[in-house]
Amino acid sequence: MERLLPAWGWLRRYDRRDLGGDITAGIVVAVMLVPQGMAYAMLAGMPPVAGLYASALPVLAYVLFGSSRQLAVGPSALTALLTLSAVSRLATPGSASFVVLAGALALLAGLVQLLLGLVRAGFVTNFLSSAVVSGFTSGAAVIIALNQIKDLLGVHADAGTGLVGLLGGLVPHLKQASLPTALIGGGAVLLLLALKRWRLRFLPGPLVVVVLGTALAALLRLDAAGVAVVGQVPRGLPQPALPGVSWGVLGALLPSALALAFVGFMEAIAVSRAIAAREGYRVDANRELVGLGSANLLSGLLGGYPLGGGFGRSAVNYQAGARTQLASVVRAALLVLTLLALTPLFHFLPRAVLGAIVFVAVIGLVDVREPARLFRVRPADGLTLLVTAMTTVLVGVQAGILVGVAFSLLVYVVHSATPHVAELGWLPDEGVFRNVSRFPAARRYRGVLLARPDATLYFANMAFLESWLDAAVQRRNGEAGGPLRAVVIDFSAVNDVDAMALEALERRLDAWDGAGIALHLAGVKGPVRDRLRRAGFLERHPGRAGHVSLTHALQAVGAEPEDGAAEAGAPPAAGGSPVAGPDGSPGPASEPGLPSERPNPRTSRAAARIRRRAAGGEP
Question: Which residue segments constitute the domains of the chain, with CATH numbers given?
């Protein structure tokens, strides 16, 4: 039962001691969400009441199927902006057709999330890297904040999703700005920032500015002075209905629905996993997709728009004491009560106050520290963040996501096509092989090149590896140690090879054989060795890929250190016979200069079996 309905698990094990925290958190978040939901609805191009529709009943679907105990599902700034960007190309924001299309978009996004969760395909969201998400979030926050200027100033201008279009629609109308509206909007912004700085836990800033702004507008009749107010808000619950749209329109909305499905999920999974880590439980990505998808489906049927998991709202829910999703049930009940009885109170609510709520909420999403950190740790990730953010700001939110994902995949392909390759040498004191460029004391072997590629080998990076090997062979042939007679490739860091890579290796082996250079593979992992066997490599080239370690490969080629001295720290085995290595494999004979390994009593009995497997493969 719990696998089909996760809510059954926490309801069955509910601890009454959590009831107080859940009720308190439900009340606090509901009080915050009433003005916030209305504000995000305006940002999405929807009537303010649509924010209440999307905040009330749809969350109950997540309560039934989601796995996070503290995630507060509902309208968010990012999903609202994506909704505006997608639907405004097909209908005028605020119109009846816009509302219908927004509902259809929520249905499509929910269907995508639900299907991904049911087929357990939550892993596909991993293609949205944290750099892309951070860049998109910061870029979208800038666009959202700029979009609120028209409401803060009382300017009638078209909303935009790109910087050029937004400014082009706003600047010509700035002379129409309303001074009373600007004073209301500016005062609300300053008050919200002050309340945010004071961190009054049980006095949500949005509620304060909504009460003060509404009271001021009603007492002074600011609507008569040109201050835009919300006006009549319908009372009652919405009637479920399928949006009446054609298949062609659904096809036009599908790309935006995919973007919303991924962004909404990434927003939710990031905050839910952070809270779960602190509370010591696990969040199931597939259950989250099913929960979010169900909530979006219900929102689309009830006149709402696409939902997500808000960062700030979930943090407030957690800090207010939420222990289970019962807090969301309390919140939904209060929002239903608001729709049934309290909507007339919002008649004189200035739209500038709602714009101020959105403005202050999103400026905190601009992360100025993350780019510096990423550039310090890995410049390619920092560049991915900047490309995503700039594309989002200059072109638009959908382009920002697409370009960010494409650029991050390009970075991955370039990185995997140019893997790190190291020339190895023996460190006698430590008894290990290490990169000679990082460890100058590492000693190379006369006439033998040891190389270690640190990547899976496939068709795209074999040309790079071959070029590196050619350059290394040419360099070593020109040094005082004499011409090379063997190249040993350490495969310990190679997790897989494809058919093209095997063909390239075999061509290289045949070519070097003709030049008097023997190619050997050492430390080949079981799955890779199986691939070699199926390709016939082991049969055609016996003794070339069965070395279980570099030590065995060096013994096979009769390697000696360049100075001809025995290695300190690696005493030869008595009698010059092979000894068991640390993995139970047969070690090398005690030849001068070769690192040898002492017998291991616990594994010596397996030495014979491993010798038989060395030329073949084990799984």
Answer: 19-232+241-363+370-410 (no CATH), 419-614 (3.30.750.24)
